[in-house]
Inverse folding.
């Protein structure tokens, strides 16, 4: 089945999950072997370290499965990507979802999108799980409510919550519109060691922190978008910084309380995201970016040193690339070149033409004509 694989021996299988095996023309659901559960119990009793996941990129699409088997397939996908969880859905209606798991350093970013549903983690599931973690969830579409240890946290699009897998929880996605969430699977020990004073609080909406919140949300968005393409060393550094910031914000302290080397990677990601969202503004400047983040212009320049580009060169290159893409886009086929240039932040047409030709070794008109062939 393109894009979907049945459960394999490389990933630990939760005992309650359904394992789907291929039969001619259909999928058959069978219970997970009790032997797996016994082996996990023996591992805990012997005090052995839990088996480390051999993570790889996986994607499960319920649309590739026969309608009667879709929800069972989805449940298995959730267990494979996350851990022993129980998704719930009103079976009276149709169900369609995609689960995607992308390895990232010692963890992963798991994406779920599609029909609204509920998810719960029970005390029994916690007892039979040898590998605990923290989840850092950023809501991408619709809303959700996460309940844990007597607290309820609501997430709107762009908001981020941090919570552990060692306490029961329920996640509710309201009916009415499709949902989408990116959930970072974070190694528990690494998160615990990042909490100030070793104190581990309950669930927190860490994006609410007055200083660190916007950086956490920006870093989560950046890592989610680039997880498959990012250099492993850069991904590990970004994830480590994200964990430290989330732990500091989750501690409840209003003090940023993080070292500059922790801030640099996520602050750069936030600055790049901010710049990208404002390329259409001719007045975009170092001073404006510095004021937005409450840092000095010198610090902005220092951040850009990590990219191998200056701020002004980065902005120019991004604007030129956007303009070239628009010149080739069918929806802008009748738009004048000057209008496209202005839309992408250029206020001086002569300057735009000179820079465009120097960058692409061709005029805007030539690029438009060549890319349409």
């Amino acid at each position: 089945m393109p894009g979907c694989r049945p459960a394999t021996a490389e990933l630990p299988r939760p005992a309650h999950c359904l394992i789907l095996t291929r039969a001619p023309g259909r999928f058959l659901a069978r219970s997970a072997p009790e032997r797996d559960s016994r082996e996990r119990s023996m591992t805990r009793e012997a005090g052995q370290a839990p088996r480390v996941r051999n993570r790889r990129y996986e994607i499960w699409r319920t649309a590739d499965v026969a309608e009667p088997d879709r929800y069972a397939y989805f449940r298995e996908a959730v267990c494979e990507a996350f851990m022993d969880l129980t998704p719930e859905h009103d079976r009276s209606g149709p169900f369609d979802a995609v689960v995607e798991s992308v390895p990232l350093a010692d963890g992963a970013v798991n994406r779920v999108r599609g029909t609204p549903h509920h998810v719960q983690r029970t005390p029994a599931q916690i007892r039979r799980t040898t590998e605990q973690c923290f989840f850092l969830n950023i809501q991408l579409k619709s809303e959700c409510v996460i309940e844990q240890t007597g607290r309820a946290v609501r997430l709107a699009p762009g908001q981020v919550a941090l919570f552990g897998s060692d306490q029961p929880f329920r996640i509710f996605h309201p009916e009415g519109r499709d949902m989408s969430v990116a959930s970072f699977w974070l190694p528990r020990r690494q998160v615990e060691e990042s909490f100030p004073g070793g104190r581990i609080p309950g669930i927190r909406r860490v994006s609410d922190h007055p200083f660190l919140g916007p950086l956490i949300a920006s870093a989560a968005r950046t890592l989610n978008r680039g997880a498959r393409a990012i250099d492993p060393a850069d991904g590990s550094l970004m994830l480590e910084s994200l964990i430290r910031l989330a732990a500091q914000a989750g501690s409840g302290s209003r003090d940023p309380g993080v070292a500059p080397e922790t801030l640099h990677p996520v602050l750069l990601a936030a600055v790049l995201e901010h710049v990208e969202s404002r390329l259409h503004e001719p007045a975009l400047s170092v001073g404006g970016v510095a004021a937005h983040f409450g840092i000095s212009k010198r610090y902005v320049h220092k951040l850009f040193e990590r990219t191998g580009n200056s701020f002004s060169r980065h902005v120019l290159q991004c604007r030129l690339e956007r303009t070239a893409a628009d010149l080739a886009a069918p929806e802008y086929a009748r738009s004048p070149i000057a209008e496209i240039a202005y839309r992408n932040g250029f206020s001086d047409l002569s300057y735009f033409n000179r820079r465009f030709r120097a960058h692409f070794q061709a005029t805007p008109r030539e690029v438009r004509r060549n890319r349409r062939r």
